[in-house]
Amino acid sequence: TVPIITITSPTAGATVTNNKPQIKWTVTDADSGVNPNTISIKIDSGSAITSGITKTASGKGFTCSYTPTTALSDGSHTITINASDYDGNAAAAKSVTFKVDTTPPTLNVTSPAAGLITNTAALTVSGTTNDAVSSPVTVKITLNGTDQGTVTVSSSGAFSKAVTLKEGSNTIVVKATDAAGKASTVT
Question: Is the pTM of this model over 0.90?
Answer without folding.
Answer: no
